[in-house]
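Database export, one record per block. Field names are fixed; values are copied verbatim from the stored entry.
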Amino acid sequence: MDTFLRIEAAATPVRSQVVEKLRRAIIEQRFTSGARLRERELCELTGVSRTSIREALCHLEAEKIIELIPNRGPIVARITRDGAREVYEVRGALEGLAGRLFATRATDAQIDDLRAVADEMVDAVASDELGLLVSLKDRFYDALFAGAGNSEVERMIGTLRAG
């Protein structure tokens, strides 16, 4: 995991990179539900300052990806059955909207892109390549949102996907 979280020099602000790397690590269960997130360890893993880590943790707390436990520090949020059901109900409504927008707004090229990713996903499932399926899922959403043309729906689904 040590290189997975490492932050590289880029035009994107460091805090944004840290947020994205930590979010992805949590989604991919590199940090499991209830796991403590120690600032010092995160600094070593990412190569950034404690200030950048603290800012990223505050952002992830606002997204309800982590919880700040008094006298203990941040942990990966625990998801309850009811909480998961509620998130998926909202995601279903927003993803349905994204699909309807895509159907009315997407160009032929965007339709081809989405179809190509969907075909790759079918192949990944058939060959039991679950790691590949995760990256294809991200590409599928990128293609869907590009054709839907609504950045607010994309932002809201992105927050829910992280939760």
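Remark 1: DSSP finds seven helices and two strands in the chain.
Remark 2: The mean pLDDT is 89.
End of record.
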